[in-house]
Amino acid sequence: MKYEWTASMASGDAEIDAAHRTLIDAINRLDEAVARGTEVAEVPGILSFLESYAWRHFSHEEECFMRHQCPAAEANQQAHAEFVARFTRLRDDLMRDGVTPERVTTLHRALGDWLVNHIAAVDTTLRPCLK
Fold first, then answer.
1. Structural domain containing residue 118
2. SS3 content of the chain, % helix, strand, coil (to 5)
3. How confident is the model at residue 67 (pLDDT cuts 50, 70, 90)?
4. Does residue 55 come out as left (phi exceeding 0), alpha (psi in the -120 to 50 range) or beta?
5. What residues have CB less than 8 Å from 14, skipping those under 6 apart?
6. What is the tens place of the pLDDT at every residue in 77-105?
7. Residue 74 binned pLDDT confidence (cut-offs 50, 70, 90)
8. Looking at residue 29, which CATH number applies to its domain?
9. Entry pTM
10. DSSP character for 1?
């Protein structure tokens, strides 16, 4: 399943929206690696990128929510912390148990569903807070 960023997911901040597109593209690369049969070679690098990029993005986004006094700032920060813990557990389990198409597909779905739902439910609440 391919995830796509849509205009309805816009936060109102161009940098945040660009980062969301990048994260969605990276998550889709997990599924693409399975389709090509190259998951063993590609997934560790994709996960490394996702980890470093997402953490930088979360930091920027949280600062933006605070700067614009968005009421969802605390919920956003909490959701990011929960995602970091979930991502870490899923990545560690995958690397420990082995990279297989089934495990990568499960990871793809877990990360993609979380991100798309988080953007739609939380990140879009920034839009009315921007001045």
1. 14-129
2. 80, 0, 20
3. very high
4. alpha
5. none
6. 999 999 999 999 999 999 999 999 999 99
7. very high
8. 1.20.120.50
9. 0.92
10. -
